[in-house]
């Protein structure tokens, strides 16, 4: 098991979110869609922004960097390997802004990256992951980042800032609104060449990594081990962003960045120096499941993780036996009251007319009372068959 997956443990969050419905643009060298760990249709055609010919696509990869990043983000589980992406249900939009990347600036510089970001936005990308950041800023790059954020896309970036002696800011890593990422190793130490400083928001694995590689064949996934790769730390954060956005679709880019920062793991490196690793190492499970009061205030209390809610208990209905007993008791009471009232009235009438009860004589041998079946005077005046007047 790669140490990065052990550290981040995405399987904990998969019952709640797997990145479904998220389109992640990988701005790099293209993505090899043939790798079996990408499902059918998971990797789109994309675009090659450095190829001016119409219909240039980016679902192939000569360098391998884009395929590594895409695998970190969304490679699907395979029984033959422990390599898997953080958000395996997400789709990948490959955007080629360079053919190959060495340490330092990618060929084409900031304007090429800007064109890649603009294409991602035009295709409706939810997340834009830039792993070929440049040490040069430009007006088109700043404008492209602003347009992406305005469209609702979250932009994540990390770059190889150079050797230990020449480390400096990279772009769009240090651009306003972008989640800037620094790479750390398994001991939480900053990877050589990572950007440090004000542009860093969070940290993620950036050394001794395993992921999907270019050149995969059907049934035989290609894997590659990457040594020091601080730019790949952006791919891990992009995967977490895809998880967060699938669980909390109403969050805007600033809220997503805030959620990821406040739920990050405060590491030894994060307190080793001023803003060495930003808020700490990203934590997928906490980023998805945390309930933040400030978010509830911002979006009307609707921001909560898609945790299966507790089974709603239906309030018990009225006890029918108790209900029937109550009705019967009430009816009995009413009858009793009426009986008492009727008896009292009869007594008053009887006293007024000076009635007295008649003594019954034994039943005759015929078994019938005299005049049985024929109304007598007592029946007609309401005093009863056997009452007599005195």
Describe the structure.
The protein is of the alpha/beta class. The protein is globular, with a radius of gyration of 41 Å. It has two domains: 3-298, Peptidase S8/S53 domain (Rossmann fold, 3-Layer(aba) Sandwich); 320-359 and 374-389, no CATH class. The strands form three sheets. Strands 2-3-1-4-5-6-7 form a seven-stranded parallel beta sheet, with helices on both faces. A two-stranded antiparallel ribbon has the order 8-9. It has helices at 3-8, 65-74, 109-122, 139-150, 233-247, 253-262, 284-289, 293-298, 320-353, 377-380; strands at residues 23-28, 47-48, 91-96, 127-130, 154-157, 179-184, 202-205, 207-212, 223-228, 355-356, 388-389. α4 (139-150) links the parallel β4 and β5.
CATH architecture name of the largest domain: 3-Layer(aba) Sandwich
Task: Order the strands across the largest sheet as they lie in space.
Answer: 2-3-1-4-5-6-7
Number of domains: 2
Largest sheet: 7 strands, parallel
CATH level 4 superfamily of the largest domain:
Peptidase S8/S53 domain
